[in-house]
Amino acid sequence: MIKKPNVIEKWQKRNKYGRPGVPLSATKIAIHYTGKPDVDGDKTVSYFNNVVANGYKIGNRYIFASSHYVIGLGGEIYQLIPTDEICYATNSANSYAIAIEVATTGSDNHYTDATYKSMVHLCAWLCSYKNLNCKKDIITHTDVVGKKYKLCPIYMVKNPDKMQQFKIDCDNLKQGKITVNDIINCTSPNYNKKISDNAKSDSDNSTSSNNQGNGEQYADIPKMIKIIHDVNYHKTPDFKNSSIAGIALCGEVFTVSQLIKRNGTDMYKLKSGYYITTHAKYVAKYK
Ligand SMILES: [Zn+2]
Fold this sequence. Notes:
The chain is an alpha/beta fold. It folds into 2 domains: 8-182, Peptidoglycan recognition protein-like (Lysozyme-like); 205-285, SH3 type barrels (Roll), CATH 2.30.30. The chain has helices at 41-51, 113-129, 134-137, 141-145, 154-158, 160-174, 191-204, and strands spanning 8-9, 28-33, 57-58, 61-62, 69-71, 77-79, 97-102, 138-140, 224-227, 231-234, 244-248, 253-260, 267-270, 275-277, 283-285. The structure holds zinc ion. Zinc ion is lined by residues 32, 141, 152.
């Protein structure tokens, strides 16, 4: 089981607007954004605990709102409500979802590196602690309410490939394939550039053993590789259809045990015993 992240406890008092004390048996984790970029976590915590919880009206209606966790721009994780009590964040999913409000930055509401790391760490740990599946049980607010009602968190809803990558990062961490230090912020504006730069500088060092015109390969052996395009992995060190064992998905990370030299594109033997291409179109050096 992965180590629990550092959590700053800011328990909300029992109140009908945010912490009604109703028991929760969580089967999903819902992520949210606070609605405006560059609003830090402590402000959101204070709004829930010191404003809404005391009874706060907009127009003539009281606001009912809270969140189990809030993550700040520096990666701080605040907890306001125990995970065995419901909060008011995710509409009809309040009865089964743990909610995490996450601070965002920039006009597109992406995440700082520190925020992203904490978000992955907290979700991976919660999935482990509550026996949930990172790939299936981490959801967005919009998954529950639909796009017409609300785009939340807006960056993840507008960039579903990043949401997919986020869930894979959580799963990789939960399964011990990567450590917290290995987490790369896929929402960073530099992310795609970083990945392609890595692939480029690695392939620049490659040998020209590729005599089938299959593109550039890595000459050195990485410790871990990351899949950058979905690609088959194989039972034997060849690319025959009969040896296909499954598909490695974009974003997944694998540990390499050996480089297999071939006539044509070389392959990595993975720790799992399967084989996968070294082709830089499909795999990038991770570590
Ligand atoms: Zn939301």
